[in-house]
Amino acid sequence: MNQEMNGYCPELESRAQAEKERERQTNGHEKIDYVFKVVVIGDSAVGKTQILSRFTKNEFCFDSKSTIGVEFQTRTLTIQSKVIKAQIWDTAGQERYRAVTSAYYRGALGAMLVYDITKRQTFDHVARWVEELRSHADNSIVIMLIGNKADLADLRAVPTEHAVEFAEEQGLFFSETSALSGDNVDSAFIRLLEQIYGVVSKKALESDVGKMNGGDSVKLSGSKIDVISGSDFEISEIKKLSACSC
Questions:
Q1: 0.85 cut: is pTM over it?
Q2: For residue 72, what pLDDT is reported?
Q3: Lowest CB count within 10 Å: 46, 52, 106, 196, which one?
Q4: Residue 245 lies in a domain
Q5: What's the CATH code of the domain at 91?
């Protein structure tokens, strides 16, 4: 089977690993302290690629087509005085790619699970995505549930309360975003990266304590993650724009 068509690309994996190693060393005169791999998952046409493009390039493409296979983009930022490069993988949402994208969960420290607030079916599939993610990823992975296309509030098919309830039950972070306007996109990614940094720091600390005590390092178990509440996911009122299928 053609590797590019089935979504698996060893060359892409190699390029990502090489870039990760380079960034661990230097970025011009600025040293990269951490490289965090994050996967963006969810059904097709919920806006995964647009969210990624908004966060990494502050762009929105009105004629964006469905992603085929997997690609990644990066953005470097400072979190708690550490220079962190987010390596964000955009996985195809079509069902025919579901079996092969599991290879890309390997090494992921965080995940953005995106649904479309105007399409109930995309939210109904979220539970399956969580199950798949937890089956293939590390048990300490940080998950952010994203209700995208919040600018289309008049077409809302998924009440915010339903998403909040699901996030609380599953121990996820939650936010509603608009890739079109940019509302809450940066804050959602930054919140996710901050939590990943907390997990990584805790693992390092427990490892050091284990070594000091002459034993093996302590494996971090998954813990419940608080849901973003109140104004953190309130969507600013913006001019009504036409729906985008991206």
A1: no
A2: 85
A3: 106
A4: no
A5: 3.40.50.300
Contact in structure between 144 and 188 (CB atoms under 8 Å): yes
In tens, the pLDDT along 114-124 reads 999 999 999 99
In this structure, is residue 239 part of a structural domain?
no
Q: Does a structural domain hold residue 114?
A: yes
Our measurement of the distance from residue 133's CA atom to the centroid of its chain's CA atoms, rounded to an integer in Å, reads 11
Cα-flanking dihedrals φ and ψ of residue 176, to 5°? -110, 135
Domain membership of residue 163 as a residue range: 10-230
Task: Tell the burial category of 197 from Cβ atoms under 10 Å away from its Cβ (0-12, 13-18, 19+).
Answer: buried
- The whole-angstrom separation of Cα 114 and Cα 191 is 15
Tell me whether residue 240 is in a domain: no
In a 13 Å sphere around the CA of 54, the CA atoms on its Cβ side amount to: 24
Structure tokens at 144: 């952010």
Report which of 78, 143, 84, 135 is spatially closest to residue 110, judged by C-alpha positions.
143
Residue keyed to tokens 């048990």? 139
Count up the domains in the chain and report the number: 1
Length of the chain: 246
